[in-house]
Amino acid sequence: MAQSLTGPGGRAASPRFRPDLMPYLFILPAVVIYLVFNLGPVLASFVLSFFKWDLLTPTAEFNGFKHYNFILNDERFWGALSHNFIFLGLAVVIPVSIGLLLAVFIYEIRRGRVFFRAALFLPAIFSGVVIAYVWKWIYHPFAGVLNPALELVGLGAFTQSWLGDHKIALYSTFIAYTWASFGYSMVIFLAGLQDIPTDIFDAARVDGANFRQKLFRVTIPCLYDVFTFVVTLRIFTAMGVFGVIYILTGGGPYYSSDVIDIYVFRMIGNFEMGWATAAATVNTMIVVCLSTGFIKWREWRSWSS
Q1: pLDDT digits 0-9 by tens, 33-56
Q2: C-alpha to C-alpha distance for 233 and 43, rounded to whole angstroms
């Protein structure tokens, strides 16, 4: 006999609440925001890369793979991509290493830990625009402080136009990037260090391990997953660097500090939306492949060991 769907007094019975759906209801707003404001524009950009559109006309003309063929044969695109890879290679070594060493230093000290943690993380709280303008003033050949400081300590031979020399402009911008980014790595490593049982460090200390031995045989192996997260974060930021370089050099001189995001920005300024979105799509695919490949490699190393 079919079960009645009406409650007492002939009223319709309300459906029973399912507690197992509660977690999904909590994350639903975040998922919707992510789909609308993150994944949606990425998919729209990918679709637009196959059309010729200049922002001025209401319609777009299907162009197939012509935009991809153009950028893949453009020397400036490959030059910008090579600069991103240089940035990436430096970013996964220098800011990460500085962050790790500072985190170990703060973890080891007994007094002033809160002060040093706040002071060293301070550059990371400023926006990229503020950081870029600060370093633009530091690098200024006449009104800046770097060249006079070098002359003051007897290193006047090293004074130069830090942002005007095409040989060092990219590396000068990387110094500003490092100053702004090592704080994030430091805080993440410090959180990882605090999760390591102190008995491990005590045992290493009893065995007579020095600083280098504790660092490479205890600390770094225990921060395996933290390293994976930090390096993956550096991949995203190094391949998407824009503000610091754009304000400091604008990609110059002579495109010597050009990166993909500035290349895309320049295309948008020329109303070439198809070329711009094609270049952005290629960069996104490279970032996804690099980050996924690195994570899979780390998982394989963990499983094989």
Answers
A1: 988 888 888 888 889 889 888 777
A2: 22
